[in-house]
């Protein structure tokens, strides 16, 4: 019998088609429904990108008005979602809070088991609208602060920052947040999206798919890397009084030592892009803006020190999480909240994939090559 070919980690395997996004590693480009992601980040708001991912086209003015109003009216968390969050210890990771909250939001939904396209879209919009309140509520309870109610005169990003920090963010900060959400929204068959599609392929409901995807996103080889990047910065030491040059020198020394110890450095490398992640330049520009806004050159120093040392030693380039972590740090989010922010963005991509999988479903069930003991018997 011929040995089956094993594709460890499914590397290089094309599992299905998708019309939602196209990752092109050769040209380092990423298209959402045909549009380059950096063009979207420069021109539209995240709500419109969500609509684009779900519907395939950007909304008309009338559609945008109706959608914005639906989104703004679904921003409040149900009492039992808040109660469920309150039951969780502060010692648990915010990703566990997010996973639990999405599960409760799903259990509450009157159309939880309705998988018609209309019901799926309705659930996707409502989850997209409500999830920021989960992050904001959890961030505030961890700081011993009362929750802040959503404001329907603010767009998604401005309201997200309002609910988290209890004050209106500066327009540049809102813009950088909006850009980060767009860049994190969708990325083809990454581990968490594939998880959502596997769950959907069993005909399970949308919230189960998103809950499972959150589990896949938590790991540091995937979404957890934005948090891990900040832990690296913290380990090197963030010294606000330091010049960029001094920070760069310390970061380079740290990286050389870490690579000598054969450590994996979070925020670098990518399974698909081998010559640089297409989203990094746009996120780096947002980071530069935040560094200037908050007057924190030492963050740039750390960033450049690690990047340069990694490039010189191994030629490995940063991925989206590398500039993403420091952007959220400067905005004032606790480090453990960074991956829940990734969820807020990726809910759009995940739910678009749930709908696409549902529309042309086939159970996802690969084979395994058995390498355990030969058949044996109890006596
Ligand atoms: N630090 C140090 N070395 C690295 C890194 C890194 N971040 N990434 C890759 N390498 C090295 C590996 O050690 C390996 O070297 P070797 O051949 O000498 O053993 C080689 O590059 C290939 O690495 P693999 O891990 O086999 O590449 P793979 O395609 O499987 O992994 C991955 C991609 C998981 C993203 C990897 O680069 C990694 O672990 N990076 C750190 C985690 C991270 O930042 N994840 C975020 C991904 S992007 C996102 O989710 C938005």
Automatic annotation (TrEMBL):
Family annotation (PANTHER family): CITRATE SYNTHASE, CITRATE SYNTHASE, PEROXISOMAL
Keywords: Acyltransferase, Transferase, Tricarboxylic acid cycle
Family: Belongs to the citrate synthase family.
Domain of life per record: Bacteria
A Pfam match: Citrate_synt
GO molecular function: 2-methylcitrate synthase activity; citrate synthase activity
Taxonomy of the source species: Bacteria, Bacillati, Actinomycetota, Actinomycetes, Micrococcales
Pathway as given in its UniProt record: Carbohydrate metabolism; tricarboxylic acid cycle
Organism: Arthrobacter vasquezii
Keyword match Iron: no
Name the UniProt record assigns to this protein: Citrate synthase
Catalyzed reaction equations: oxaloacetate + acetyl-CoA + H2O = citrate + CoA + H(+)
Keyword Transferase in record: yes
NCBIfam families linked to this entry: cit_synth_II, PRK14033.1
InterPro entries found in the cross-reference section: 2-MeCitrate/Citrate_synth_II (IPR011278), Citrate_synth-like_lrg_a-sub (IPR016142), Citrate_synth-like_sm_a-sub (IPR016143), Citrate_synthase (IPR002020), Citrate_synthase_AS (IPR019810), Citrate_synthase_bac-typ (IPR024176), Citrate_synthase_sf (IPR036969)
């Amino acid at each position: 019998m011929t040995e089956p070919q094993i594709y460890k980690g499914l590397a290089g395997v094309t599992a299905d088609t998708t019309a939602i996004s196209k990752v092109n590693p050769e040209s380092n480009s990423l298209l959402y429904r045909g549009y380059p992601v950096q063009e979207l980040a420069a021109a539209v708001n995240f709500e419109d990108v969500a609509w684009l991912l779900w519907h395939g086209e950007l909304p008309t003015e009338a559609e945008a008005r109706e959608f914005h109003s639906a989104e703004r009216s679904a921003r409040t968390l149900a009492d039992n979602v808040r109660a469920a969050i309150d039951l969780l210890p502060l010692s648990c990771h915010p990703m566990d809070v997010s996973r639990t909250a999405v599960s409760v939001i799903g259990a509450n939904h009157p159309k939880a088991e309705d998988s018609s396209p209309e019901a799926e879209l309705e659930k996707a919009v409502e989850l997209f609208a409500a999830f920021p309140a989960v992050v904001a509520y959890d961030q505030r309870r961890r700081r011993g602060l009362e929750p802040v109610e959503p404001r329907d005169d603010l767009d998604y990003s401005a309201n997200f920052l309002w609910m988290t920090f209890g004050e209106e963010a500066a327009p540049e900060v809102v813009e950088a947040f909006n850009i980060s959400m767009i860049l994190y929204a969708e990325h083809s068959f990454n581990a968490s999206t594939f998880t959502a599609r596997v769950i959907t392929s069993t005909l399970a409901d949308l919230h189960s798919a998103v809950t499972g995807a959150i589990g896949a996103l938590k790991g540091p080889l995937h979404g957890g890397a934005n948090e891990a990047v900040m832990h690296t910065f913290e380990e090197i030491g963030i010294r606000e009084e330091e010049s960029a040059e001094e920070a760069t020198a310390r970061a380079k020394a740290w990286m050389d030592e870490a690579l000598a110890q054969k450590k994996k450095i979070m925020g670098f490398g990518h399974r698909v892009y081998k010559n640089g992640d297409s989203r990094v330049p746009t996120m780096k520009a947002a980071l530069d803006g935040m560094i200037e806004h908050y007057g924190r050159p030492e963050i740039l120093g750390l960033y450049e020190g690690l990047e340069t040392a990694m490039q010189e030693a191994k030629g490995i380039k940063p991925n989206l999480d590398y500039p993403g972590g420091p952007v959220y740090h400067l905005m004032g989010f606790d480090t453990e909240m960074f991956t829940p922010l990734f969820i807020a963005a990726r809910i759009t991509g995940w739910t678009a994939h749930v709908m696409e999988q549902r529309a042309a479903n086939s159970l996802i069930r690969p084979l395994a090559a058995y390498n355990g003991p030969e058949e044996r018997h109890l006596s």
